[in-house]
Amino acid sequence: DAKTTQPPSMDCAEGRAANLPCNHSTISGNEYVYWYRQIHSQGPQYIIHGLKNNETNEMASLIITEDRKSSTLILPHATLRDTAVYYCIVRMYGGGADGLTFGKGTHLIIQP
Amino acid sequence: DAMVIQNPRYQVTQFGKPVTLSCSQTLNHNVMYWYQQKSSQAPKLLFHYYDKDFNNEADTPDNFQSRRPNTSFCFLDIRSPGLGDAAMYLCATSSRRTGDNYGYTFGSGTRLTVV
Q1: Is the CB of B88 inside 8 Å of chain A's CB atoms?
Q2: Exposed end of chain B (fewer CB within 10 Å): N or C?
Q3: B107 touching chain A per CB within 8 A
Q4: What value does the mean pLDDT take over residues A2-16?
């Protein structure tokens, strides 16, 4: 799986959009970008994934650059409950039965 | 709701005393995983079961074992816990059946304290 680079921490004001960047310059053509988050003392939770087109669901939007070397997760109206560690993971869809490999992630802190 | 359940949420064990953590799932997923997460670190995969086939990560210590008696249950056994094994242990499931979503579902974890 390709390696990802994320800032270790970010702050965002409540009600504002939180934009979390991820670099994955070695991503290969058949690898997807996945985002998970982990709220304190809970298990990781799936947010969204994409290949090359921008994706949106009820939780977030995912913007992938045209060269696919970086992406941004957008939480459109951040709330205090969005404070969590956000993990950007690159892997093939399905990817065999191997488990997810987590990097260090970004600790997002939503400020009241 | 279909889910992954880990019991107990908190477990205290004595140094060197065997301990078992349990995980059950109602998703009928054929793959189950165990992760170890130490304080302020990312989850680290220990091993997984693909159906009945056990797959160990290369750097998982022999002190950690697992059992999967049926599709729904998976156990993590720590034979002789040391202070360094204190961590959150996360169970996850996924399906690798054709047509299924390949996403991962995690339990809430068991926090193990070794005294």
Answers
A1: yes
A2: N
A3: yes
A4: 94
